[in-house]
Amino acid sequence: MNINPSTVHPMRRAFRQIHRNRGLYALLLPAAALLLCFAYKPMYGVVIAFKDFSPALGITGSPWAGFKYFDKFFHSYQFSRTIKNTLIISVYSLVTFPIPIVLALMINQMRTNRFKRFFQTVTYMPHFISTVVMVGLLLILFSPGNGLVGNLYRLFGAEAPNVMGSAGLFSSVYVWSDVWQHAGWDSIIYIAALSTVDPSLYEAATVDGASRWQRIRYIDIPMLMPTAVTLLILRVGGLLGVGFEKVYLMQNNLNISSSEIISTYVYKIGLLSNQYSFSAAINLFNTVINFFLLILVNRIARKVSGSSLW
Amino acid sequence: MEVMEATPAPARQVNVRSSDKAMEVVLYAIAAVILIVLIYPLYFIVIASFSDPSGVANGQVWFYPQGFTLDGYRELLRHPNIWVGYRNTILYTAVGTAIGLAVNVPAAYALSRKDLFGRKALSLLFIFTMFFNGGLIPTFLTIRDFHMYNTFLVMVLPFSVIVYDIIVARTFFQTSIPGDLWEAAQIDGCGNLRYFARVVLPLSKAVLSVLGLWIAVGYWNSYFNALIYLKNPDLYPLQLILRNILITNQMQSGMGSGEAAQIALRLANMMRYSVIIVSTVPIMCLYPFVQKYFNQGVMIGAVKE
Questions:
Q1: Distance (Å, rounded) from C-alpha B83 to C-alpha B96?
Q2: Do B58 and A146 make contact, defined as CB atoms within 8 angstroms?
Q3: Is pLDDT above 90 for A255?
Q4: Which of A9, A24, B81, B304 qualifies as a cystine partner to B110, CB 3.0-4.6 A?
Q5: pTM listed for this prediction
Q6: What is the model's pLDDT at position A267?
Q7: pLDDT of amino acid B178
Q8: Is the pLDDT of residue A75 over 90?
Q9: What is the pLDDT of residue B297?
Q10: A61: Cα separation from own chain's centroid
Q11: Dihedral angle over CA of B185, B189, B190, B192, nearest 10
């Protein structure tokens, strides 16, 4: 430390710093090793998207196929269908983005602490339900024969629609059941942001005659903007990344025309019909689009609002 | 109050106060509707699980159990797959959560230290994987190359690094562990590893609890890895068994023609309420233990970087 840093060779200085903190590298090692094996090694494996992969020849041994499989996807009828379905679901979900914010603003306004605690607990609870149980729940509730909704219809002497077997209702059921399950949980982060507001701000506003609504409008909402923008960037960046788990469980022969999305198609082509290269190509196409969308949205957000991911 | 009456109050202020009152009413009215929409379906499952299945099917169950019976639960006890799945899920959750904490928390601490040489590049190595990945098939082939296909290990190890959790923990360490503690420890001749174990970890109960809960809930509820990487039913977690009872059987209800299919459907109908209760209640019970940490700074860190 008492040596003037500028006289020491930078390499030596780096080495000394690494040596002094070798314990930290030991702490980092397990996670880094796992990422190299199970995240970076598969990234090398995407070359099979450009090859005629056969397990017997291995990744390096398989012959090159160029863009054959990308071409095949672009020209198949599933191309526009899966992209359209994926986009419909994610844009629809994006519309529900403000709901957790509204919920957080509501919770922040509750003055009775016991009610507030109860309300928060109840809104968080559905988050702990697994996707399988959630879809099971939907099937139970919406069963036209003996479900809750079916019985409700029958109470009024009407014929219940087959909600879970309807292609037209698929995206609505998907999105609103997600809101039901996760809006409360997603509001936590906004509640935490609101808890950092300086109470003297509210007092000053009240003294100046601001109504409750004005305090929300001019203190709470601006306070939430940076958090909201960051989360929005992530959401838009994942526009073509609708998760596999729930959609796959909700799929059936009756709704398949609107429930086949990119990730379920990748799974079917890859693991159910063993067309590894074709599946990897579709998957890579999807990942690359998401990646560039994220970068684009991030750049726009930085220009427009000054907040960005990096 | 009397004093207020005496001085002529500006009309506007009165308006403000009545609008606040109106808002209060609207707020609690909306909150009540939300509570009903959230609670009733769950409550319905609970009462249906104690009711006679035909009563449930005919729409007689609305507010309390009809024809009280424990048949649904009795049927569960007779279903061996459920208990194998239960055991597997408990093992995957316990081992997976332990590995997850052991891998992510130390990495987060290392990345939180400003004097870590190469910190930027190493952070990028982690964060990049959030936005780019090899995809299903290349990952599947990698798992096979490591001879992990259809093993216990694949359920707890390969996907245990969760970069989002690392970012949350890293921000926690940066904001909640004072930097001069490390300076002081260094003067006392304490190395990085000992400092991490003896000083940092005991100060990090909040973040350890929250991450532990997230990871545990994730393992308990996931079915994707099992669907992709397991073949042997003896290794199936609870969620895959549930999928058969709750979804596959229900979907086939219209098409099932054989007697076996009909029996399977009848059993599934009997069990579907009780199985939801039995599979969901344990993980919900974890929540109150960490609830007190939730509205604190732990979560805010995630988006601040």
A1: 19
A2: yes
A3: yes
A4: A24
A5: 0.89
A6: 96
A7: 86
A8: yes
A9: 53
A10: 36
A11: 100
Compare CB distances from B116 to A24, A45, A291 and report the shortest one's residue.
Answer: A24
Q: Do B287 and A266 touch (CB under 8 A)?
A: no
Q: Which residue in B has a C-alpha nearest to residue A251's C-alpha?
A: B251
Contacts of A209 in chain B (CB under 8 A): 12-13, 16
Taken in order of first residue, the domains within chain B and their CATH numbers are: 2-69 (no CATH), 74-304 (1.10.3720.10)
ipTM comes to: 0.89
Min Cα–Cα distance to chain A from B110, Å: 5
Between chains, do B196 and A45 touch, taking CB under 8 Å as contact? no
Q: Is B12 on the interface with A (CB under 8 A)?
A: yes
**Contact residues on chain A for B161, CB-CB shorter than 8 A:** 31, 34-35, 38-39
Residue A10 CB partners (closer than 8 Å, separation 6+): none
Q: Mean pLDDT in runs of 10 for chain B (305 residues)?
A: 41 61 91 96 92 81 86 87 94 97 97 92 92 93 96 97 91 86 88 93 90 93 95 95 85 59 73 92 84 63 47
> Residue A35 above 80 pLDDT?
yes
- CA–CA dist B137, A281 (Å, integer): 10
Residue B299 confidence (pLDDT): 55
* Mutant choice from A38, A103, A252, A266 vs B, greatest count of B C-beta within 10 A: A38
pLDDT at A310: 63
Cross-chain Cβ contact A230/B133 below 8 Å: no
Residue with tokens 């109150």: B288
Alpha-carbon B62 to chain mean position: 29
- B192 and A22 within 8 Å at the Cβ level: the answer is yes
B204 touches chain A (CB under 8 A): no
Q: Which of residues 107-136 of B touch A (CB under 8 A)?
A: 107, 109-111, 113, 115-118, 122, 125-126, 129, 131-136
* CATH class assigned to A71-305: mainly alpha
Instruction: Name the residue ranges covered by the structural domains of chain A.
Output: 71-305
Write the residue in B137, B272, B297 that is nearest to A136 by C-beta.
Answer: B272
Is the CA virtual torsion B170, B171, B172, B178 positive or negative?
positive
A68 pLDDT band, cuts 50/70/90, is: very high
Q: Residue A119 and residue A110: Cα distance in Å, rounded? A: 10
B217 touching chain A per CB within 8 A:
yes
Question: DSSP of chain A, one letter per residue?
Answer: --S-GGGS-HHHHHHHHHHHTHHHHHHHHHHHHHHIIIIIHHHHHGGGGGB---TTTHHHHSPB-TTHHHHHHHTSHHHHHHHHHHHHHHHHHHHTTTHHHHHHHHHHH---HHHHHHHHHHHHGGGGS-HHHHHHHHHHHH-TTTSHHHHHHHHTT-PPP-GGG-TTTHHHHHHHHHHHHHHHHHHHHHHHHHTTS-HHHHHHHHHTT--HHHHIIIIIHHHHHHHHHHHHHHHHHTTT---HHHHHHH--TTTHHHH--HHHHHHIIIIIS--HHHHHHHHHHHHHHHHHHHHHHHHHHHHHHS----
Using CB atoms, pick whichever of A24, A148, A287 lies closest to residue B44: A148
Instruction: Return the pLDDT at B177.
Output: 86
Nearest to B217 by CA among B279, B275, B286: B286
Tell me: pLDDT of A305 over 60: yes
- pLDDT computed for residue A102 by the predictor: 96
